[in-house]
Inverse folding.
């Protein structure tokens, strides 16, 4: 691994300091996840992230329709916007978003809150739908690790992951406008770098170096 | 067949991993990245990081209001579907699972076609302009001298090859640009099996007359 990629890897691998919440959260996982969600007063992004993760856990274990409705209300409009920016018209985006959310219900048993935030997991489902429905291609997926969904996700890891997710969101938000726009285009626009070049009028080399710069900054902020 | 993770020396670039995570790569390139990640925990962790960037973009991105009754429509969709039976875990033989998905089995299911000098190939049915094929290079044999017009990705599954500068073993991914004109030579110890992906036909410089290349689809 070169040093440039190291810190982005660390972002997912090495937990940030978790503090006292970890100890409070060590017993009954589900109940306490819920307690933290409602128990800390003013919602902050991390509590929000835990709340969505908890919704998926409730769908998985109790087929909880209230939890699904909450998740739907928050994520469906975001998924729809993502699909429309990727080139779907409003009818197709609506239809695909419903399918994405139905998939969230059906695959809830595969969700591990210690490995991905709810937003990240839903993004991967929406992205796959985009490739299938809009790009009309297959999405080759890596082989799964021999990690079983039956295994209870580790609570400290779950909290650490949600904190990292929050840190990542803040780091992205604080990137200079131009750099953030390019990363957004790369993710949302369904544009290759050369298509971004055509759209923005920037030469390809500039775009590649700006994206690289943006990633470097992101890594630096997350150190 | 187990590989030691620490043997993997060559990883995808940020560009490639980010585009794989964003879902903008041609199918053949996605296949090469997925095959490599199947064998490399380090790249898997980087992929998760790029997925998290995508998640953050969705979380903090724009919203578009859903149509009226969309939640009810989604519940109907959920109720109409029989619960998914989890697919059995896909296991790697010599070939990682995403490659096996295109072949319908492991190495023994590959329909090789000889292309000369003991080298064999099998074209995989990927959509789009970029093409993917498995190559079989006998131990000590040479992949025909070639350059290529676009980016070429190679992932090694068995054996190893050297291109004169560097050595690529199981799990390694080689990212070669347009200007790289190289002659990979398989290690003497074992036949080399790899996946090669290009977005344009290879240009062979010597042994295969150019006119025959379309016939062999290489």
């Amino acid at each position: 691994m070169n040093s440039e990629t190291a810190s982005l890897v660390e972002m997912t691998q090495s937990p940030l300091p978790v503090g006292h919440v970890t100890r409070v959260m060590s017993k009954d996982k589900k109940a306490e996840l819920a307690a933290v969600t409602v128990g800390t007063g003013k919602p902050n992004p991390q509590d929000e992230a835990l709340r969505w993760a908890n919704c998926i856990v409730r769908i998985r274990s109790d087929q909880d329709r209230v939890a699904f409705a909450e998740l739907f209300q928050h994520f469906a409009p975001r998924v729809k916007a993502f699909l429309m920016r990727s080139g779907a018209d409003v009818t197709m985006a609506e239809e695909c978003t419903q399918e994405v959310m139905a998939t969230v219900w059906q695959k809830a048993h595969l969700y591990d809150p210690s490995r991905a935030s709810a937003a990240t997991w839903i993004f991967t489902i929406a992205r796959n739908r985009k490739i299938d429905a809009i790009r009309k291609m297959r999405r080759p997926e890596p082989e799964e690790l021999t990690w079983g969904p039956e295994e209870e996700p580790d609570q400290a890891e779950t909290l650490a992951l949600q904190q990292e997710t929050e840190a990542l969101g803040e780091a992205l938000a604080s990137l200079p406008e131009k750099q953030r726009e390019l990363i957004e285009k790369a993710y949302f626009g369904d544009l290759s770098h050369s298509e971004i070049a055509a759209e923005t009028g920037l030469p390809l080399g500039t775009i590649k170096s700006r994206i690289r710069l943006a990633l470097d900054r992101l890594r630096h902020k997350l150190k | 067949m187990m590989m030691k993770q620490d043997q993997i020396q060559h990883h995808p670039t940020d560009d490639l991993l980010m585009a794989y995570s964003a879902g903008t790569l041609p199918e053949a390139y996605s296949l090469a990245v997925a095959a490599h990640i199947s064998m490399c925990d380090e790249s898997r962790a980087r992929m998760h990081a790029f997925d998290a960037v995508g998640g953050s973009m969705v979380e903090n991105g724009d919203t578009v209001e859903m149509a009226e009754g969309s939640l009810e429509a989604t519940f109907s969709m959920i109720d109409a579907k029989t619960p998914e039976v989890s697919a059995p875990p896909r296991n790697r033989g010599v070939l990682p699972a995403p490659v096996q998905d295109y072949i319908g089995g492991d190495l023994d299911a590959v329909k090789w076609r000889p292309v000369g000098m003991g080298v064999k190939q099998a074209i995989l049915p990927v959509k789009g302009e970029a093409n993917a094929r498995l190559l079989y290079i006998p131990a000590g044999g040479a992949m025909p001298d070639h350059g290529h017009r676009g980016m070429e990705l190679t992932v090694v599954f068995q054996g190893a090859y050297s291109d004169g500068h560097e050595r690529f073993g199981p799990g390694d991914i080689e990212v070669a640009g347009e200007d790289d004109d190289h002659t990979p030579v398989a290690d003497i110890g074992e036949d080399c099996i790899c996946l090669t992906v290009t977005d344009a036909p290879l240009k062979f410089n010597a042994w295969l007359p150019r006119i025959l290349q379309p016939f062999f689809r290489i």
